[in-house]
């Protein structure tokens, strides 16, 4: 099995290194990752400027490609150009330093890289670990390898898109894996107004808990309980129920 590994924390991130080591138990791993951190860039792609791609060497030989672009750029460039003559069977993005659960999925560069892989019909998994000053990426990578290996064996998973989140508690003691939907609760979106030394106003985004409690069975709630969560995602944003009703609206152009 050939595995394309990327992330949004950058090619030298510890989460990527830990996951690479574990994924080598499953097959050949090709690393193509952003040259610099790209957290929160979502599904940004580069098309107005050229992409540079530098070979990173370790122990005297090629180890990874560092792309001066976004996580989605890395996957698009890999599948469309770098690896077009020898396609991959799996795209894995991570391990991100910080959870990507609930509506944060929409902002995540980690998840966007997995979405890009699924665009091409390749089974794709995003992997994220709860942020901590002493995050245990090695333990998280073992959990991720077990889940990813299981997904890869499922015929129904081919071409699918999955979001795996690992809380800190799961790296300290065995925890359950919960198959749950993505939480839709709206998080607080307030800002703190400040001034720079020149007296100009600027705003710093603040984090706060959801205004409404999330559904009982969702990624965010299970993660709070210390459980690992796995969510199947899709990138088709069409609202099917409304689509079926709209012809009856008799709209005129």
Give a description of the structure.
- By secondary structure, the chain is of the alpha/beta class.
- Helix content is 26%, strand content 26%.
- It contains seven helices and eleven strands.
- The protein has helices at 14-23, 71-82, 109-119, 137-152, 168-172, 219-224, 240-245; strands at residues 2-6, 28-34, 53-58, 61-67, 90-97, 123-129, 161-166, 177-179, 191-195, 201-205, 228-233.
- The strands form two sheets. It has a nine-stranded mixed beta sheet, with helices on both faces. Strands 9-10 form a two-stranded antiparallel sheet.
Question: Which whole number gives the mean pLDDT?
Answer: 94
Instruction: Estimate nothing, just give the exact number of structural domains.
Output: 1
CATH architecture: 3-Layer(aba) Sandwich
CATH first level? Alpha Beta
Major beta sheet, specifics? 9 strands, mixed
How many H/I helical runs?
Answer: 7
Shape: globular
Notable characteristics:
7 helices, nine-stranded mixed beta sheet, Stationary-phase Survival Protein Sure Homolog, Chain: A, alpha/beta, globular, 253 residues
The gist of it:
The chain has 253 residues and is of the alpha/beta class.
Q: Which helices and strands, and how do they pair?
A:
Blueprint: E1 2-6, H1 14-23, E2 28-34, E3 53-58, E4 61-67, H2 71-82, E5 90-97, H3 109-119, E6 123-129, H4 137-152, E7 161-166, H5 168-172, E8 177-179, E9 191-195, E10 201-205, H6 219-224, E11 228-233, H7 240-245
Parallel strand pairs: 1-2, 1-5, 2-4, 5-6, 6-7, 8-11
Antiparallel strand pairs: 3-4, 7-11, 9-10
Helix pairs in contact: 1-4, 2-3
